[in-house]
C-alpha cells in the first residue's frame, strides 16, 4: 500500500477477487482469514458490496460474486449471450423447444439468452429478462441442486407446470465457470419431458460452460 491508495477499496477489490476464484462462495470467517482482518471489517465490506449488487449472500451465509459485477461492463451480458447462442440454437433446433441460458440474480433466476426453434408449429414463448424464484422452475432448481452437490455432477432437473400451466422444463447447471452461477435448459408444451432431452440439455450446458471459460 502507498500513500496514494485506499486501504478500504483495496480490501473490497480483494474480496471480489477471492469470491471470483471460488465456485462455491466463502463465509465471513473464511474471508477474514484470507484477508487477515477481523470479521467486523469483512461484514462492513460485504454490506457495502451488497448495496451495489457486486456481492450476494445465499441462505447459508456464503458470499458470492453478484451480477452487479457483470453490469459494470455494458458489453458483458451481450458477450455472455453471444458465447452461449451457438449451443442454445443447436439445442432448440434439435429438441424443437425453446432453449435458454439462465443466471442467478440474488434470489431469482434471470433468463439472459433465449432461442426459439424455427421449425415447430408452436412452442413456448420465453423472453430474455424473465425472472422467477430459484425454487420454482427447472432452471432455478438445477442451480440449487448444483449448490447442494458442489463436488459432483448433479445431472439435469425436470419440472412440470411450475411456471406456466401445461409446460414442462429441463435444465442442467453450468459447471466450472468461476464466479458465474447459471443453467441451460429448455421449456416445452408437454405433460412430460421426453427421455432424450435431459442428457441433451446436459451436453448443451457443458458447451456453454466451455464457451464462457
TrEMBL record:
Residues 6-67 form the HTH iclR-type domain. InterPro entries: ArsR-like_HTH (IPR011991), GAF-like_dom_sf (IPR029016), HTH_MetabolicPath_Reg (IPR050707), Tscrpt_reg_IclR_C (IPR014757), Tscrpt_reg_IclR_N (IPR005471), WH-like_DNA-bd_sf (IPR036388), WH_DNA-bd_sf (IPR036390). Transmembrane segments: none annotated. The keyword Transcription applies. Keywords: DNA-binding, Transcription, Transcription regulation. Residues 68-213 form the IclR-ED domain. Gene3D superfamilies: 3.30.450.40, Winged helix-like DNA-binding domain superfamily/Winged helix DNA-binding domain. It holds the Pfam family IclR_C. This is IclR family transcriptional regulator. It comes from Streptomyces anandii.
